[in-house]
Amino acid sequence: MSKKRPSATYSHVHGRASLRIAAPPVVPPPYTLPLLSDETAFTIPRLAQAEDLPVEVTVLWGGSDTLDPGEVTLIHFYWDDEPTPFDTQSIEAPYDASDLPVVGFVPQIKLDSPGLHLLRYEVELVPGNAAELSDPILINLDKEAPNQNNRGGPLIFPLDVQRDGVTDAYLASNGDRVVAEVPRWPDMRLEDRVDGYLSLLALRNKRSLRNRFVDVVATVTINQLHKDGAPIELVFEGDELRAHANGEYNAHYYLTDRADNEGPPSRISILLIDLTPTPTLLRPVDVPQLLIDGLIDLEDARAPGGVYMEIPEVFGSTAGDVLQPFWNLIPLAPITVGFAQAWPIRVPIDYATLASGGFEFAPGVIRADYTWQRGTMPARRSGPRFVPVNLTVAGPVSPNNPDPINRLLDQVTVKGVDGDNLLTASDKDQPARVVLPLYDNPVANEVLELMWGSPGVLADTYTVRPEDRVGDEIEFFVPWALIESMPGGTVPAFYWTYNGFNRQRSVDTLVTVNIVTIIGLLSPQFPDVHYGPGPGSGFINCDLRPWDGGARVRVPGDVTRLDGGDEVILSWASYANTNGNASGLIPGTSETFRHTLTSREAEEGYDFRVPFDPYILLPGLVKPPDGQINPRNGSAVVQYRVIKQAGAGIGDSGRVLIAISLIRPNLPPCIADD
Question: Which top-level group of life is the source organism from (predicted)?
């Protein structure tokens, strides 16, 4: 049994009893429309009148906090002044505002009665207690179209239009539009809508042929200005009128209120359309390169002619019409339609425009379209074509895009046994190691592809790992079989970077590949050194006056092994000992000298001149320390290498040791003429 409590109908304020009124019920959208300034009742749309209507209690009533668990509160919903509720809902304690709303439903049969109706509810905290009454709300079951469901008067067109019809001249002089006035109706309300239609005279009274949503050519919605006396105007835009074939039309309208009650067609006005035919459909541009992989990328930009779009034939266009293409809202060069115009019209997209949206740094989607214009008519825009664009790359963005060669990428270095970017017989049967520093901002799973030769053949790949950082040394290996399969000489090596969308490549590294060994090269000679008996035999010494022009080293002529065009590289190293032991190498005296032989030099020989200082001077001053006998003099080791053109051969001569001394007994060393 429930506890005895005061009636919920009363509350005590400052010791006085007052009637407690609950918050009014709510009909939620879309079952009702917002209240307008000229309304006292909530309008129920026609569609919502076809089924049971929900009514919600959204504010918690008083006294719920005094209930015991399990006690049941009843909510009774009432229609107008009917004594019996049309619905009753219950809610069990404990409950609070989070358990709302409580929803009742007005049976649909009651909604068949047009006009204004009251909705309210009562809250019975527990059965038997006095009920708490809500404020009512007023709803409007509007079932009558504007103008009391009568036909409206005919549209009133300007006198020029009534006399001459709609002409090009009229549209050009009146903002490319025709404005018709709608006669007022006595029961006009806010948000009444006027929908204008044009139908050929042959279709008069065939209302079933009208599509009320698609065929509307002009519309206006009533606002407060109209209610205050402003003219009600239907605006027929030039584009809508040009979309109709020339001829006489029934111009009429329908009135529809905000509850969606539509009246009968208005009385008609005759409207003549007499316009120069214009295009009725501006089809979207085509971007043929999208058919390849669904996006515009650097490969498309590098294709002959670059990226382009095509304007399809504009049916109804004539010579002199102007087409203005747009790419990513950027206007391109306008096109004037010519006599016997060839279609489609190809529109190139220069790279600066293509990349202007920042697509070298992040992919995106652009809009491609065009406008059509004739004379002073307003331009009409085509349907859009949305184009995905991705110009991003792995590695730095090239300032010379779309050129595939990016000079900001580091070049590769081929690590040969005999030197960088040089492969010889010393490297035979081993993969050639190739290295480069990794570019800035590497991203995992980007791929580097090493290419060898011309045209490039894929030699090796490297996939960037999550732990890789800028400057890390990346290592490739070129199979010896690939090196050997190509002609020797100067071979280019480069790499592509690939991020899954675009490739770019480094500058070529030119690698000398010379794996044919030249056997039996004659040893270098010292033509000014005598080897006969007597003092100074086998020495570069004071007698040769080496301070005057240095020392001559001869590459002997050899018609069987040397040819014009061969490159000869002379190697010289000076030592502070007599036998050229590496431990005695004098710093700064190891040097190479290069020369390309002429045919005559290949036959007769060629003399290098080794400078006196430091290559002869420093070893020439070597003498034994006081009290010792060694080293008696300095020395130098000389050798030359021959590199033939186009990889036809490479070889080294034998090493020759030459003694050097500028020391004179009881005199200063000879370093210049006395």
Answer: Bacteria
Q: Which residues pair with 123 in a beta bridge?
A: 75, 132
Q: List residues bridging with 639 in a β-sheet.
A: 571
| Distance (Å, whole) CA 230 – CA 233 | 9
Give residue for tokens 């000298």: 593
Alpha-carbon separation of residue 646 from 267, 491, 514, 566, 623 (angstroms): 95, 9, 8, 10, 47
**Tens of pLDDT along 589-621?**
999 999 999 999 999 999 999 999 999 999 999
Give, for 568, the enclosing helix (H) or strand (E). Answer: strand 567-575
| Residues 134 and 21 sit within 8 Å (Cβ to Cβ) | yes
d(CA 508, CA 450): 11
Distance (Å, whole) CA 613 – CA 550: 8
Single pTM value for the model: 0.60
Which positions ≥6 away from 476 have C-beta within 8 Å?
412, 433, 434, 435, 448, 450, 459, 460, 461, 462, 495
**Contact, 650 vs 536, CB < 8 A?**
no
- CA torsion 610-612-615-617 (nearest 10°) is 160
| 388 and 363 Cβ atoms separated by less than 8 Å | yes
Cα→Cα distances 93→77, 236, 600, Å: 20, 62, 118
**Distance of alpha carbon 351 from the chain centroid:** 14
Compute CA distances 492 → 455, 483, 527, whole Å: 9, 11, 40
| CB-CB contact of 417 with 318 (8 Å) | no
Amino acid 279: pLDDT: 87
Interstrand relation of 509-514 and 422-424 (parallel, antiparallel or unpaired): parallel
From the number of C-beta atoms within 10 Å of its C-beta (0-12, 13-18, 19+), residue 371 rates as middle
Helix (H), strand (E) at residue 254: strand 247-256
Domains and CATH numbers, the chain: 10-141 (2.60.40.10), 147-274 (2.60.40.3760), 290-389 (2.60.40), 413-514 (2.60.40), 539-660 (2.60.40)
CA dist., res. 394 & res. 447, Å (int): 8
What residue type is assigned to position 226 of the chain?
H
Across 102-124, b (16+ Cβ under 10 Å) vs e yields: bbbebeeebbeeeeebebbbbbb
Classify each residue of 129-148 as buried b or exposed e, where b means 16 or more C-beta atoms within 10 Å of its C-beta.
bebbbbebbebbbbbebbbe
Contacts of 565 (CB under 8 A, 6+ apart): 596, 597, 644, 645
Q: Using one digit for the tens of pLDDT, what is the confidence trace for 94-148?
A: 999 999 999 999 999 999 999 999 999 999 999 888 788 999 999 999 999 999 9
Q: Is 222 helix (H, G, I), strand (E, B) or coil?
A: coil
